[in-house]
Amino acid sequence: MQLQLIRNATLRLRYGGLTWIVDPALSPQGHNPPVRNTPNDRRNPLAPLPVDTESLSSPDAVLLTHLHLDHWDDAGAQNLLTGRLGGEVPLFCQPGDEERIGEKGFTRIYPVESELTHAGVTISRTSGRHGTGEIGRAMGRVSGFVLRAPGEPTLYIAGDTIWCDEVEDALDRYRPDVTVINSGGARFNEGDPITMTPEDAAAVCRYAPDTQVVAVHLEAINHCLTTRADLADGLRKQGLEARVLIPADGETLDF
């Protein structure tokens, strides 16, 4: 398996003999307004793309954890439409998102209720909590995915979730070799964080000591307040720095 962080939660995977794009959000730096009611007003995305978008236009399949703008935007959709498969690229999503995806011009949309198999790769959907209380409910439904294939490590992409029972359940059920967490500590001016914090990352490490954690969703959106340095420092203080890889935008990891 090869995993490349593009930016934020956008990943390029080589898995099961296929190239996958996860959460293609490809707007140019500063193209979108800031997330409102947050501690700063910088325009999004905060960082430029580290690769040419054309290199991301022709995957064999796409995984969409949910449809928030920092995970699925017009630029990402249009880029796929210009690629080798165009609107016929297989897209795997959570149930309920297929209509909005179809409105962009895609025809091969597969909502994953529980589990399905594509080209020898088993795709299982997991749940999570995009925050707590009223804010968590307002953020709507989010999902993660587990990928399994012969000869490949089991990969758990947790999606936009905090540390919660649903993440524990996924770690117990699938025992992933690699776990990708969105760990920028996103939050609003009120309420608790809506994605994982350094404390949540440490909880994943302690609960599942055999999984290699990869931390993404950092330094790209204005309400994500945890930096890579913050996360590394928090893990170092707890003796967990070796358990979490924190790739730079554009960096590729091989497993």
Summarize the topology.
Elements: E1 2-7, E2 10-15, E3 18-22, E4 61-63, H1 74-81, E5 91-93, H2 98-102, E6 109-111, E7 115-118, E8 121-127, H3 133-139, E9 143-148, E10 155-157, H4 165-174, E11 178-182, H5 198-207, E12 212-216, H6 228-237, E13 244-245, E14 252-254
Parallel strand pairs: 3-4, 4-5, 5-6, 10-11, 11-12, 12-13
Antiparallel strand pairs: 1-2, 1-14, 2-3, 7-8, 8-9, 9-10
Describe this structure in words.
20% of the residues lie in helices and 24% in strands. The termini are close together. The strands form two sheets. Strands 6-5-4-3-2-1-14 form a seven-stranded mixed sheet. Strands 7-8-9-10-11-12-13 form a seven-stranded mixed sheet, covered by helices on one side. Strand 11, helix 5 (198-207) and strand 12 (212-216) form a beta-alpha-beta unit. The protein has helices spanning 74-81, 98-102, 133-139, 165-174, 198-207, 228-237, and strands at residues 2-7, 10-15, 18-22, 61-63, 91-93, 109-111, 115-118, 121-127, 143-148, 155-157, 178-182, 212-216, 244-245, 252-254. It has one domain (2-248): Ribonuclease Z/Hydroxyacylglutathione hydrolase-like (Metallo-beta-lactamase, Chain A). The longest helix has 10 residues, at 165-174. The protein is of the alpha/beta class and 255 residues long. The mean pLDDT is 97. The chain is built from six helices and 14 strands. Helix 5 packs across helix 6.
Compact overview of the structure:
By secondary structure, the protein is an alpha/beta fold. The chain contains 6 helices and 14 strands. The chain has a single domain, classed as Ribonuclease Z/Hydroxyacylglutathione hydrolase-like (Metallo-beta-lactamase, Chain A).
